[in-house]
Amino acid sequence: MLGEYPIEGRGAAEIAASVERAVGGGALSPGQPLPSMRELATRLGVNPHTVAAAYRTLRERGVIETAGRRGSRIRSKPATTGREDLYVTVPAGVRDLSSGNPDPGLLPPLAPALAAVAAEGDRDPVLYGAGPVEPELARIARAELDADGVPGGPLTVTSGSLDAVERVLAAHLKPGDAVAVEDPGWGSLLDLVPALGLRTVAVGVDDEGPLTGDVRRVLAAGARALVVTDRAQNPTGAALSAARARELRAVLREHPGTLLIEDDHGHRIVDLPLHPLAGTTHHWAFVRSAAKAYGPDLRLAVLTGDTVTLDRVRGRQRLGPGWVSRVTQRAVARLWADGSVDTPAVAAAYGRRREALLGALADRGITAYGRSGMNVWIPVPDETGAVARLLQAGWAVAPGARFRVSAPPAVRITVSTLGEGDVGPLADAVASAGGPGPGWLRSQV
How much is the pTM? Predict the structure, then answer.
């Protein structure tokens, strides 16, 4: 059952750590069954209750899952390994379209803003006891949120979108609670949910966002939280439409106890209007990241939400990092204020590259998706084969397994650095490598 790997330990923590090390190192594989608690207790010479406690810890950490009489097994996508392991190694000479990064040529220069705030910090350093949020950043962010129809609420700053989502989930949920996530969806979120001991429940998406029928079904079945990407959804490029937003608000009003989290990482790189769901439920959070427009290394996102949620998040922040660097906050405030990112121009640049590839694929009989943002999602019948053949042809693309729960196979292509002369050869390579896939849209329930 375990091959050559022996689970070791006398206490629950030691046993759990032994399994986790094996998963992280590849000695125990996704889907591999584990011994029954009684069998492992006999083998280790410990009380079965000790093994039960170890397995409970592993379930809460998202490493294993238990299916009644069928026993326990390593999760098909355990949090210990993470979807980052599914990245393609890009050999020299191969064009990398797998990373999901923005085009460095469309990012604003940081040196002037950083130099200015460094000088400001020299004159007026931020010391312990200072407020956690830069007032000018809060003012600009609040004005833009108001203009986009996001309800008023307190505001804080986190180290990027995923940090915000993690803090909000931890503020309200307990291990075992179900979280509804988009499928296909953001791979890091699909890792985070089980790592927090929470259960992932898949919600299908189409070009207009999460499918209303799926959301209604999972909330009626007891999902405690729903995470929605408003625009530039990763990996499909979906963007929440006005009509879909109305439908989802109606569903959420039927389940006011749902924790709603919205991710607007497409801010400043997408020219489609925002249709927020925020404020429909008792507890909600809306996060807006600077990563795609200003650079991933800034590690900054603005978070707003209902008073209870923000109080819990800020309280926990005070006991951990305390605050996100005010130097970074001041730099982002300057960048936002001086219009260093020309949103229509950036959105148009990504749009031209996306539409060019979609059109070229369509000319070759291949259906693909990408309504907004910097990614194109292409269903394929054989994901592993398509990735390998494209790599041989000189193109590195992301395997869809990084982004899927139960959606059909596909590949993701990041178009951010795609040149005009790249489009035809890339489309030819995709046509040769994959062929038309089964489609990624899931019917409404």
Answer: 0.83
